[in-house]
Amino acid sequence: MKNKFVAFGLGALALLVLPFFAQYFGNGWVRILDTALLYMMLALGLNIVVGYAGLLDLGYVAFYAVGAYLFGLLASPHLTDTFDWFKLHFEHGLHAPIWLVIPLGALVAGTFGVLLGAPTLRLRGDYLAIVTLGFGEIIRVFMNNLDAPVNITNGPKGLNAIDSIKFFGYDLGTDHTIAGIEVHSVTAYYFLFLVLVILAVVICHRLELSRIGRAWMAIREDEIAAKAMGINTRNLKLLAFGMGATFGGVSGVMFGAFQGFVSPESFSLDESIMIVAMVVVGGIGHIPGVLLGALLLSALPEVLRYVAGPLQEVTGGRLDAAILRQLMIALAMMGVMLTRPRGLWPSKDHGQGDVTQAVMSSGGLVWFTRLFMRDTWK
Predict the structure, then answer these.
(1) Is residue 375 predicted with pLDDT exceeding 80?
(2) Which residues pair with 167 in a beta bridge?
(3) What are phi and psi of 205, to 5 degrees?
(4) Residue 301 CB: number of other CB atoms within 10 A?
(5) Residue 1 domain flag
(6) pTM of the predicted model, to two decimals?
(7) H/E element holding 182?
(8) For the chain, how many structural domains are there in total?
(9) Considering the domain boundaries, does residue 11 fall inside one?
(10) Mean pLDDT over the full length of the chain
(11) Beta-strand relationship, 170-171 and 166-167
(12) Is the dihedral of CA 277, 280, 282, 286 positive or negative?
């Protein structure tokens, strides 16, 4: 027990020092850490749906978009610039506080999750994947085209000038000096995201050990047997979709505040496939594995920049460095799934081969095909 407390203490100290160490080499490295924490929140939310309940969701990025656009509308001048009613009642712009937007983003995204889950209760496996994939694309297309006849989302131009997060007068969007230590904006966001990830881990862990979590896992292993045991599979599936979507909505709010700009291009199918891959590569249904998968796959594209550049020079510039990075990520994922089919850090107490195979066949194949059809042969 004592060794465990020492390990936790050292881990906490490392997490506190890490952004300042990365800040020494440039704010770009801290941004990578911030992005990794955002993806961890997304992966934890998707793990509730895919890992616990066994429901294959390829449209999870839609809830991410809902949260981001909700914050963009409530914390930017777009509504006051577009609608006279808002301009009349909010002369200086609609700048909703973060205390309001976070629970509202969670509520709206959770509602969308239940609306997605309701018509898909009888679907399983690849059929469920196709429907959720379509839902994600529908949301993206709506965001891309809701600029006419009434301009709600500003279409492909996106929403800009979004407020940064402020806590008791402390603006996370500006640099500060605390006790002689310079704290940049990206470093302040790091600590906020870290707190949210820790809170998400605690919630997921408590859910996993609860009666609801055990019921989800019973549905995942054998839905017919779970229903025969008296488990209300309909309500529990809807709860899984709603809970997972809530995590996505909160992550979207954080993304909108962090970037200060949101557009439909940030919520494409590739993004959704990447989030699914994080859960699968790390280990479906296992919280440490999911965190590891999110960290690796969010940081890997940035690390591979240093590899793709020289390879592009070798080919005389005929291949784009971005395409090479995606290709290397796909090959790395295939290698992991061949050598570690249950993920890098799988759970010990049960097998999830059916879910993993479904994810990789429906998700990885779609991503790999899109990569070659859209980029390599254009």
Answers:
(1) no
(2) 170
(3) -65, -45
(4) 17
(5) no
(6) 0.88
(7) strand 181-183
(8) 1
(9) no
(10) 84
(11) antiparallel
(12) positive
Q: Where are the alpha helices (DSSP H) in 121-232?
A: 125-145, 185-209, 211-221, 223-228
Give CA–CA dist 144/262, Å, rounded: 11
The model's pLDDT over 159-205, given as tens digits with 9 standing for 90+, comes to 988 988 888 778 888 877 777 778 889 999 999 999 999 999 999 99
Residue 268 in tokens = 């494409």
Output DSSP code: residue 262.
B
| Secondary structure element (H or E) that encloses residue 170, with its range | strand 170-171
Domain that holds residue 97: 18-376
Question: What does the pLDDT read at residue 72?
Answer: 92
How buried is 353 (Cβ within 10 angstroms: 0-12 exposed, 13-18 middle, 19+ buried)? exposed
Helix 269-282 / helix 287-303 crossing angle, nearest 10 deg: 130
251: left (phi over 0), alpha (psi -120 to 50) or beta: alpha
Q: To 5 degrees, how large is the angle CA 119–CA 64–CA 32? A: 150
Nearest one of 207, 243, 234, 254 to 110, comparing CA atoms: 243
Query: Does residue 63 carry a pLDDT above 50?
Result: yes
Question: Is 169 inside a domain boundary?
Answer: yes
Helix, strand or coil, per DSSP, at residue 284: coil
Residue 9 lies in a domain: no
pLDDT of residue 102: 92
